[in-house]
């Protein structure tokens, strides 16, 4: 098998791993070394100045000795297999960099035989890149659960960011769907990476020659929809991971049925894209809005409302916290208002030192008044009055009712529900209802339901 065939197979096998993100590292070029690293973005992200930067996302091997039921690369699945040798991967990466195709590398792998062997091969590829080719760009590497701690340390000294995929939200699901993996084997390298990163930062403050260990931190990924855990369970686990292991990011991957298995959803099941979107919104509330997981969901409501974002849901459940006076409220209180984000809250605090703010000033600052006006006062005056139905209609997320256009020919276009629209919309259209009529009906039912809860 030639190198082009290997690249085609292993790049395609890596597409299901979403846990790759912007670098988080600013490292300028150095004399005698190739490349640099900019914090704003990696892997087809857009930087603040409009640049699109990319990285080579590939598996070292897809020949796996594990039989995880949800994975396309599992041992029992009949697919084409390929494996790089370390120098092949290093030369491929540096060749792409010199042609200006990429700015970094995202490297993961299936488990070849055992975790230690896999990690040794990955480490050798990265060693060649760093030491022989003097590559100074961004590298994100996946640690293999169950590998020796010494190998995890060696990998962390070569990579900018590391990650260990937790994959499934509970130990029960892990035992049922991935019997070769153990919870302790997944959490142990997470804990080691967190400890080593903290120790490295302390040493770099004291010793000039201290080497950084995974300076961009670590991340993880959870598959959503392959197992029966609720949103409350997932968000609670996410909060615990952030607190205990100092993760930079938790990624959520809507389960895409790729293999037939009685323990998994049918191949005809749609990926839960809207649910994934709600989890990302809740994750943002945990990290930047100072919410806790217990505030967002409860035993009575264990899953997010598909028609409202989590912040609007919290606001409707807690009417006693509103209205908020924008000219005197603290930053924490402002962040609880639907339509006000961290940047808007900071701008409000800065602007009100010089003047009293009204709706016109809030609009210029960037506040989304369509939602915020029902939850704020300006100098004692309520931003807006509205019936319950009007407020519910203003808070609905248009994404849940998304309708696009499918072009059948040059002069024939047909409306179609977008992939991340509410599941009920797809169900109604599958039953034969016109998509625009279904979206209007579903929106009216959502407004009625939310109005009753207010």
Would you summarize the structure shown here?
This protein has 454 residues and is an alpha/beta fold. It is built from 17 helices and 13 strands.
Word description of this protein:
This protein is of the alpha/beta class and 454 residues long. The protein has three domains: 3-296, Aldolase class I (TIM Barrel), CATH 3.20.20.70; 310-385, Orthogonal Bundle (DNA polymerase, domain 1), CATH 1.10.150; 398-453, no CATH class. Helices cover 41% and strands 12% of the residues. It has 17 helices and 13 strands. A six-stranded parallel β-sheet has the order 3-4-5-6-7-8. A three-stranded mixed β-sheet has the order 9-10-11, with no helix packed on it. β3 (56-59), α2 (86-98) and β4 form a beta-alpha-beta unit. α7 (231-245) packs parallel to α8. The longest helix has 24 residues, at 183-206.
Write the topology of this structure.
Layout: H1 3-13, E1 45-46, E2 52-53, E3 56-59, H2 86-98, E4 104-108, H3 115-132, E5 138-142, H4 149-158, E6 161-163, H5 171-177, H6 183-206, E7 218-224, H7 231-245, E8 249-254, H8 273-288, H9 293-296, H10 310-317, E9 324-325, H11 331-335, H12 342-351, H13 359-365, H14 369-372, E10 376-378, E11 381-382, H15 388-395, E12 403-409, E13 412-417, H16 423-430, H17 435-453
Parallel strand pairs: 3-4, 4-5, 5-6, 6-7, 7-8, 9-10
Antiparallel strand pairs: 1-2, 10-11, 12-13
Proportion in β-strands: 5-15%
Just name the CATH architecture of the largest domain.
Answer: Alpha-Beta Barrel
SS class: alpha/beta
Number of helices: 17
Average pLDDT reading: 89
Please identify the top-level CATH class of the largest domain. Answer: Alpha Beta
C-alpha Rg, in Å? Answer: 25 Å
As for the CATH topology of the largest domain, it is TIM Barrel
Give the N-terminus to C-terminus distance in angstroms: 63 Å
At the fourth level of CATH, the homologous superfamily of the largest domain is Aldolase class I
Pfam families: HHH_3
Domain Helix-hairpin-helix DNA-binding motif class: 332-351
InterPro entries: Aldolase_TIM (IPR013785), DNA_rSAM_put (IPR023874), Endo/Exo/Phosphatase_dom_1 (IPR051675), Hlx-hairpin-Hlx_DNA-bd_motif (IPR003583), rSAM (IPR007197), rSAM_sf (IPR058240), RuvA_2-like (IPR010994)
Protein name: DNA modification/repair radical SAM protein
């Amino acid at each position: 098998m030639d190198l082009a065939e290997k690249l085609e197979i292993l790049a395609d096998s890596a597409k299901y791993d979403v846990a790759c993100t912007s670098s988080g590292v600013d490292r300028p070029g150095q004399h005698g070394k190739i490349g640099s690293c900019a914090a704003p973005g990696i892997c087809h992200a857009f930087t603040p100045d409009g640049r699109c930067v990319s990285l080579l996302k590939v598996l070292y091997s897809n020949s796996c000795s594990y039989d995880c039921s949800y994975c396309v690369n599992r041992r029992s699945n009949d697919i084409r297999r390929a494996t790089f040798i370390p120098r092949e991967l290093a030369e491929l990466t540096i060749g792409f960099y010199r042609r200006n195709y990429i700015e970094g590398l995202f490297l993961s792998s299936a488990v070849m035989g055992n975790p230690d062997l896999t990690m040794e091969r990955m480490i050798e590829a990265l060693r060649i890149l760093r030491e022989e080719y003097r590559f100074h760009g961004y590298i994100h590497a996946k640690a293999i659960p169950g590998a020796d701690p010494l190998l995890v340390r060696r990998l962390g000294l070569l990579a900018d960011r590391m990650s260990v995929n937790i994959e499934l939200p509970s130990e029960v699901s892990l035992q049922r769907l991935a019997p070769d993996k153990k919870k302790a084997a997944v959490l142990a390298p997470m804990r080691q990476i967190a400890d080593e990163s903290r120790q490295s930062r302390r040493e770099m403050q004291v010793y000039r020659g201290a080497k950084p260990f995974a300076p961009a931190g670590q991340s993880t990924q959870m598959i959503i929809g392959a197992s029966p855990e609720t949103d409350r369970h997932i968000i609670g686990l996410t909060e615990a991971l952030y607190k205990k292991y100092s993760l930079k990011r938790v990624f959520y991957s809507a389960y895409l049925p790729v293999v037939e298995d009685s323990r998994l959803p049918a191949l005809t099941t749609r990926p839960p894209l809207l649910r994934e979107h709600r989890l990302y919104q809740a994750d943002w509330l945990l990290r930047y809005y100072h919410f806790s997981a217990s505030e967002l969901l409860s035993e009575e409501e264990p899953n997010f409302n598909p028609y409202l974002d989590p912040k609007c849901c919290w606001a409707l459940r807690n009417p006693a916290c509103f209205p908020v006076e924008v000219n005197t409220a603290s930053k924490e209180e402002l962040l609880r208002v639907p339509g006000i984000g961290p940047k808007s809250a900071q701008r409000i605090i800065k602007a009100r030192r010089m003047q009293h703010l009204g709706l016109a000033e809030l609009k210029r600052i960037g506040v989304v008044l369509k939602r915020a006006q029902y939850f704020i006062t300006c100098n004692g005056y309520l931003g807006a009055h509205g019936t319950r139905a009007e407020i519910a209609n203003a808070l609905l997320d248009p994404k849940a009712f998304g309708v696009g256009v499918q072009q059948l020919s040059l002069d024939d276009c047909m409306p179609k529900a977008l992939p991340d629209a509410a599941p009920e919309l797809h169900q109604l259209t599958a039953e034969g209802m016109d998509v625009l009529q279904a979206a209007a009906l579903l929106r009216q039912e959502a407004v009625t339901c939310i109005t009753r809860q207010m």
